[in-house]
Design goal:
Blueprint: H1 11-21, E1 25-26, E2 28-33, E3 39-44, E4 47-52, E5 55-62, H2 70-78, E6 80-85, H3 91-96, H4 107-110, E7 115-116, E8 125-126, E9 131-145, E10 148-163, E11 168-169, E12 173-174, H5 176-179, E13 182-184, E14 190-192
Antiparallel strand pairs: 1-13, 2-3, 2-6, 4-5, 5-10, 6-9, 7-8, 9-10, 11-12, 13-14
Length: 203
């Protein structure tokens, strides 16, 4: 077994170890509104559930050279955003939104994604997703070392669920076979859900 001290290896090496081992990671496609009203869209795989009561999700957005990314800046300013689950049908379009564009250019236009109005917030979502969560910003944490902020940890409260009828089952259960969610691995690799098995939880 190899051992590494995070403080003795580079930021890139820490990154490689984490994205190669913490797999698969769900992908959030996040829409937010820029200062000029531009609809910003970007995918993030540092994303997960925090709690169901209240319904909270987490989104960690790494800074670049200490600078806020557009999504983090928009969310912290407007206190709202929409999270979409990336699936097999939209992943290629979503991948196009990862390109670096000026803040006044919409990634949604570049990827031919369709705006859809939200119910509880002003930020729109996209029609091409089978799942979207309208979120308000619950808390924003600036994390880093020695006075240097390296990541913005954003906690969102889900205020409205939008679930495609195709994946919805009785009693608010979701058919994962129909959803076909896509996950992130390391490098340029993605994964679909493979064989599924059950294990009984002990009493």
């Amino acid at each position: 077994m190899l051992s590494f001290d995070p403080k003795q290896i580079s930021e890139r090496q820490n990154y490689q170890l984490l994205i190669g081992t913490v797999i698969p990671r769900p992908i959030a496609f996040v829409t937010s509104i820029g200062e000029e009203g531009t609809i910003n869209g970007a995918p993030f795989s540092y994303f997960n559930i925090i709690s169901s009561n209240p319904p909270l999700i987490s989104l960690a957005i790494q800074r670049k050279n200490g600078q806020l990314k557009d999504t983090a800046n928009n969310i912290k300013r407007n206190k709202e955003f929409v999270v979409h689950i990336v699936d097999d049908e939209n992943v290629k379009q979503i991948n196009q939104t990862a390109a670096s564009l000026p803040s006044n250019k919409s990634e949604l236009d570049q990827a031919n994604l369709t705006h859809v109005k939200s119910k509880e917030i002003s930020t729109p979502g996209i029609k091409e997703a089978k799942v979207r969560f309208e979120c308000t910003l619950e808390e924003a944490l600036e994390l880093g070392e020695e006075g240097s902020v390296g990541v913005d940890l954003l906690i969102g409260r889900i205020v409205q669920y939008h679930i495609s009828e195709d994946i919805y089952q009785q009693n608010h259960r979701i058919d994962h076979n129909t959803l076909q969610a896509v996950s992130r691995l390391a490098g340029q690799n993605y994964a679909k859900i493979g064989p599924v098995f059950e294990l009984e939880r002990p009493e």
